[in-house]
Amino acid sequence: MKTLLEQPGFLAPSGTIGADVSYLLALVFTILFLVSWAMAKKAQGTRHHKLILVSMVSMVVYFCAYYYARQLGVLAFEGREGFGGTDDVYHNVFVPVLTTHLFLVTLGLVLAFYMIPLGFRASENTGGDYRLKTGELKMQPRTFKIILLTIFGCWALVQAILLAVRQNPFGASVAYGLIFATIALVVSAEKLIEKLLPTAARRHRILGRVTMVVFALVLVTSTATYLMLYVIYPHKS
After folding, report:
1. Residues 10 and 67 in one domain
2. Which of 111, 127, 137, 152 is the S-S candidate for 211 at Cβ 3.0 to 4.6 Å?
């Protein structure tokens, strides 16, 4: 996979297959999200529900696989050697933009994991038409405990598999531990969200807007990173 991602790209002379595919898919996903958002604005609930669900699930699968393959993106893959600009531009412009991009990608994935089930919980299917619920949306204490125990059980299972198949699983154990800890924190934040945004429709609309803004910023920072790496300051062999 690493060898394939390092092959010459097709968008810029200095680009790579991995960078070009990553940028194009970020563009496609953002466009799909904006189209689904426009559908929601026009009260096309069913079309919005189906398109955003397919788009978010596809994005989560892609980014998890891609950033795993690239070891969290261009910081680990290209490093300073992959940037052709000066040290001043690298430290004061490129690294802050790239760091912001990785933070936004992480935040976007967390929001996606939350918004996917929220889309089902906050809506009701009446005669094949999805509409947002008007009442309060709360998670039952028993359901909350079951979800947390399930997360803990999945983490324990992954740890056991890592110990069985790998000789030095410390790095992978820490990475998976952070992933499951993040999921647990998102689930735990549900109780705070219930107090701040108790009604289903309002919660979905507000968090949906926040998620769309995050995804749009991901595209902006992705574009800036791509341009600096492969167009404005390409690496000179």
Report:
1. yes
2. 111
